Amino acid sequence: MMRFLVIPTMCMLLFACSEQPAYITPLPQILLTADSISWTEKRPTTLTYIVDSDTVHLNGGTKYRGGSSSKYWKHSYALKLEDAYPLAGLTAAKAFVLNASYIDKTLMRHRFSFDVYRAMHPNNIAPVCRYAELYENRDYRGIYVIMERINAGRMGLKNADGSALWKEPLIFYPEMPESQEADNPHQQKYPDIKKTDYTDDLLALRDFLFSSPDEVFSRDVFKHFDKQSLIDWQLILLLSNNSDGQLKNVYLYREGEDNPYKFALWDYDHSFGRDGDGEYNMLTNVIDENRCIIFARLNALNPDNFNQSMASRYIELRSNGIFDQNALVDLLNGYHKELAPHMDRNAERWPHDADWYHDDHDFEREVATIHEYLDKRIPQLDQRFGYNQ
Predict the structure, then answer these.
(1) Residue 15 lies in a domain
(2) Of 108, 126, 148, which one is at a domain's C-terminal end?
């Protein structure tokens, strides 16, 4: 059984605080100590968590994680603790993602997108995020986005027969790409595919999306998909201009076999003025609403007045302050206040003019990019949906 060891300390750890001016409110510190860390399996790890004047030692396992982001020198980690703990002030859990968010020099885009999406509706699911400074075997690795893990327990799926969860299922592609997992093509995360395989359910769903007659699609689409979840997913895609999120970067789930499919967010660093692997995109390329088959057919057929419902929902979100630009800027300013005192040190470790980047924007210039993006995007969407202040 894991023991939580809490040790009051005046200076946290010498190597952790020696480079921090005394007047800076420190971010939480996470120190990973392991003989080695692998890409393929979690290796035994001692995690030392330092916050304010307390130090806690936790046991667990870590491995590096990431798809295309694995090419960057700053790696993300998958963490599994032996017992649940409220790491970085998040809800107590065993599993967390320590996201390097290397390509996003603001470290804000994930958190910003997820916070807005959850604020849109109490049923909307996206990871809660916090910031911490991370060390691997005493090597300072910079500021990380500490994220809740999207799993069946977090989403309350374990008590409903037929409930299921998939990460980035391949159902929206006109031609299905090669899966990351040959024996689990749609990355079924719950239940264990070796015990209950729902691949046929997703193949049938994909067939419905691409092959059903128009009258069948119009009649049954909201039996298959939750209308509110579809609308909010599309609106956060449009607000963020996250074209990657139209076909992937999303979890699909259902709360029981007879319930419609819903969407939870994942991976939104390609957004708010950045594209692809970090190309600058100040709305030169605007998201194509018809790129994803479900929205192409919904826009064309307009079942149950879907287009009007989209406009009404956007106007509601503008009117109730969720999509209010001042409120969005307040969120960004809150993140900025938390991060800014520590970004010089992070930039020393991970220079903002490294070869991976398309330009040499520093932290402040990149935050200004998000503000500039909102200045342009909100009026575009107001016009698109007929919102008048």
Answers:
(1) yes
(2) 148
